[in-house]
Design a protein that fits this description.
This protein is an alpha/beta fold and about 290 residues long. Strand 6 and strand 7 form a beta hairpin. The termini are close together. The structure holds 3-hydroxy-5-(hydroxymethyl)-2-methylisonicotinaldehyde. 3-hydroxy-5-(hydroxymethyl)-2-methylisonicotinaldehyde (PXL) binds next to strand 1 and helix 7.
């Protein structure tokens, strides 16, 4: 077991969808299990996520976001990382930029998951212009974690379904880094039909690495949030970018495998909870 002198603390800026396992209901348990104090700035409260479920409630919390910043600032709270995900409006994007400006230090990490699309399509809740706003938020990030659909939107390019060539992925990674973030982790990457995973790029070292595993059939909601939360957990436990991506791919794929076997509705999220013990072993925390 690792010796942990200083407990790391992060701010997680996402919505709270009561049912369906995504955003805060995924980020909080995963990062907390990884030993990281996770402070939540909820951007909205929904009865369920918006992915394929109709009739959800949506309580927008934009009006509370600046007062959260002021209060946390008055308490002089310091964060080792700031992690943003699903954001509902341009105004929320602006407030999150203010959050970054307020709490950025010379050595903390800003991770932006530009949640807005999957499978070649923008989530129905967003207008096409939202991608531009998300691009401007990504400029301020140290690390971004888009899927290939989000990458295409951020780069204002057409989306291509895979399999991809290595050269295509490398080019996308470099172009995304040119938007601002030093590190990019691209998800939904596959070079052959039967595999799926991620590719990492670190501008500083120029190193590009692929982390691929066997694809499990089907589509599973909320896996991007599980991946990004696991990636950040590993980075804050001092794993390298590529090791962190490997840990996040393993945890996400394990969660999907369990869900595939259980044959639950894809909209209800994946069983990541029962994969947490193995995840903690990979993090060398137990
Ligand atoms: O998993 C991304 C996500 C987060 N939050 C809400 C969503 C989605 C994706 O559909 O609807 C509210």
């Amino acid at each position: 077991m690792k010796n942990k002198e200083h407990q790391k603390r992060i701010a997680a800026i996402h919505d709270l969808s009561g049912f369906g396992k995504c955003s805060l209901t995924v980020a909080l348990p995963i990062l907390s299990a990884a030993g990281i104090e996770t402070c939540a700035l909820p951007t909205a409260v929904l009865s369920t996520h918006t992915g394929g479920i109709s009739g959800y409630t949506y309580r927008d919390l934009t009006a509370d976001m600046r007062p959260f910043i002021q209060h946390w600032k008055s308490l002089n709270i310091k964060f080792d990382a700031i992690y943003s995900g699903f954001l509902g409006s341009f105004e929320q994007l602006e407030i999150v930029k203010e959050f970054f400006d307020t709490f950025k230090t010379k050595d903390n990490l800003i991770l932006v998951d530009p949640v807005m699309a999957d499978n070649g399509e923008l989530y129905r809740i967003f207008k096409p212009e939202f991608a531009q706003g998300m691009r401007s938020l990504c400029k301020k990030a140290d690390i971004i974690v888009p899927n290939l659909t989000e990458a295409a939107l951020l780069l204002n390019e057409p989306y291509h379904p895979g399999p991809y060539t290595q050269a295509y992925i490398e080019n996308i990674l470099k172009k995304l880094s040119r938007l601002g973030p030093e590190k990019v982790v691209l998800t939904g990457v596959y070079l052959k039909e039967e595999e799926l995973g991620a590719a990492t790029y670190d501008y500083k070292t120029g190193i590009i690495e692929f982390v691929l595993t066997q694809k499990i059939p089907g589509y599973y909601h909320g896996t991007g949030d599980i991946f990004a939360s696991a990636l950040l957990s590993a980075l804050l436990n001092n794993f390298s970018l590529n090791e962190a991506a490997q840990i996040a791919v393993n945890f996400t794929a394990d969660s999907i495998r369990r869900t595939y076997k259980a044959k639950t509705d894809y909209r209800f999220g994946v069983n990541f909870e029962q994969c947490i013990p193995d995840f903690l072993k990979e993090l060398k925390l137990v």
